[in-house]
Design brief:
Layout (H helix, E strand, L loop, with lengths): L4 H28 L8 H35 L7
Helix pairs in contact: 1-2
Length: 82
Amino acid sequence: MRVPKKAAIFGFNLCASVFLGLCVYGLLIYSEGAKSSPGTLLTWVLFSLGVIGCIVGICFFGSEWDRRNAEEARTSPPPKKP
């Protein structure tokens, strides 16, 4: 699947932002400890799927971004020496 460079950059940044948000949210829940109920099994499954989905998105869009950069490097002329 070919993804344009701008879409790869956007997807990578979106997945990374959501991943960081979920991590901070998880740490806040963990730090509260016994103050609140830990949530249902469904909540934790959905939370885990969100984290895994973000990691997959980061890997996919990051590799697409690298491919577009490599294609640009191959097609651009070498810099002139002064």
